[in-house]
Amino acid sequence: MTVDLALKNAKILLNGKIVKAGIAVEKGKIVKIAKDTNLPAASKEIDVKGFAILPGIIDTHVHLRDQELTYKEDFITGTSAAANGGVTTVFDMPNNKPVTMDVHTLRERINLAAKKAIVNVGFYSAFPNDVKEIPGIIQEGAIGFKLYMSEKIGGLDPDCDEALTEAFTETQKTNVPVCVHAEDRRLLESVRTEMERKKDNDVEAYLKVHSPDAELKAIDRAVKIARKSRAKIHFCHVSTAEGLQSIKFAKQARFPVTCEATPHHLLLSFESLKNLGAVGLTNPPLRSEDDVRLLWAGLQKGTIDILASDHAPHSLNDKKKPEIWQVASGIAGLETMLPLMLTQVNKGLLSLPRLVHLTSKRPAEIFKIRKRGEIKEECSADLVVVDLKKEWKIDSSKFYSKAKFSPFDGWKVKGKPVKTFVNGSQVMDNGEIVASPEQGHIIR
Ligand code: DOR
Ligand code: ZN
Ligand code: ZN
Q: Which of 42, 63, 85, 153 has CA 20 to 30 A from 403's CA?
């Protein structure tokens, strides 16, 4: 048998151990993992020069924009950024223009992405106007619902517990998770009104509005509603010690709750926000050193299930506003997540198997993505080759993302994705995108 592709001279993480082996790929799937000499003949062979091959990252929190927001990002630039960062599957958030919130808007978005994506893309929907539309949206291909408790996006009023209960109950029947941006809208609004009255509009005022209390209140409300409805909930970008503690209690009580952390909440604190200004502004915001310490403990011990970038690209114009309340919040993270986290592995703060679990196996489990997220026979060949020892500097001017700025610009990192494969085809080689659009699959 001659297969399509063989990756040789590699180190592969198998059962928690790095072993010298190669991978044979046929029709986009891994068909054999073996010593190079035992691999079948292949039409194409690639010598990966002794570098490690890891499962491609599944980043469950990405804002790809496009449609009426192409000036910030589009499906080509966003998925190119993913490929450059070793990310082989992204899940796209629904706060778009138009908002993804029903069968029609979802279908439009999927059709557009199918023509442009160079990595795999799954789609969230916001909740529709009528909960009866929920099963149809899942049928159409949404991988989950996204609930913004911080503002009304989609058809659901985030202040109304009855409406949330009804939507969660309906979602529970479809068995997909509800992903939650946990900041309580009413609390944000009341503090902001007070800040505006006092004409406080600096970083400190911003942090008072987006307080740890706002996160905790939203988490507690969502857990309570999920408990009643038995819906699976996944908390996006947990940023505070209190929030994480509350999630830990919910997990101990065996509620179906999972959560994610972002590299920016793990590696930056609000001390850096003063120097970074708008580039470091994100929601939930950067927190205290103590919060950062406790997030790390959660990441190492397992309270935090997955890592996600919350890639939220904006134009520099949208960042440069005189009033802090008008500044677009968000950090472009697709091209920095893996290098930043490999650096932590090199520092001994995280083991390589744990990083792999957090970025591929566990995301696939939570979202029930079958036959991805692992280097295993029969799984899709979504792979990233990494040079674990490469020392280099992050240069955001070289990003494929349209947002060519980052709070991590100029950071010295150790560890670099050097080749990315999606469904068995190479999409990135040494920082160059070598894919044609349509290489990515739509994940349903
Ligand atoms: O900082 C943020 N940016 N937080 C969000 O919840 C939305 C995101 C965006 O879409 O830019
Ligand atoms: Zn969010
Ligand atoms: Zn987000």
A: 153
Out of 69, 282, 319, give the residue to mutate to test ligand 1, the one with the largest number of ligand atoms within 8 Å of its CB: 282
Helices 241-252, 212-229: crossing angle, 10 deg rounding: 20
* Beta-carbon count within 10 A of 117 CB: 28
* Spatial distance between the Cα atoms of 247 and 200, rounded to a whole number of angstroms: 32
The tokens for 423 are 């469904």
**Encoding tokens for residue 314?**
């904006």
Question: C-alpha distances in angstroms, 332 versus 31, 159, 243, 264?
Answer: 35, 29, 24, 10
Q: What tokens appear for 394 in the block?
A: 């992050």
List, chain by chain if needed, residues with CB within 6 Å of any ligand 1 atom: 63, 95, 181, 282-283, 312, 329-330
Can you point out the beta strands (E) in 27-116? Answer: 29-34, 41-47, 52-55, 57-62, 87-92
**Token duo for residue 127:** 């909740």
Dist. CA 284 → ligand 2 center (Å): 7
- Written as one letter, the residue type at 83 is A
pLDDT tens per residue, the chain (444 residues)?
899 999 999 999 988 899 999 999 999 999 999 999 999 999 999 999 999 999 999 999 999 999 999 999 999 999 999 999 999 999 999 999 999 999 999 999 999 999 999 999 999 999 999 999 999 999 999 999 999 999 999 999 999 999 999 999 999 999 999 999 999 999 999 999 999 999 999 999 999 999 999 999 999 999 999 999 999 999 999 999 999 999 999 999 999 999 999 999 999 999 999 899 999 999 999 999 999 999 999 999 999 999 999 999 999 999 999 999 999 999 999 999 999 999 999 999 999 999 999 999 999 999 999 999 999 999 999 999 999 999 999 999 999 999 999 999 999 999 999 999 999 999 999 999 999 888 999 999
> What does DSSP assign to residue 364?
H
Q: Report the nearest-CA residue for atom 6 of ligand 1.
A: 283
Distance CA 240, CA 214 (A): 10
Residues 248, 304: Cα–Cα separation, whole Å: 9
User: Distance, CA 137 to ligand 3 centroid (Å)?
Assistant: 20
pTM of the model: 0.98
CB 183 within 8 A of CB 159: no
Query: Residue 155 Cα, ligand 1 centroid: separation in angstroms?
Result: 18
What is the spatial distance between Cα 285 and Cα 174, in angstroms, rounded to a whole number?
A: 32
Residue 398: other Cβ atoms inside 10 A = 10
Q: Is 94 within 8 Å of 133 (Cβ atoms)? A: no
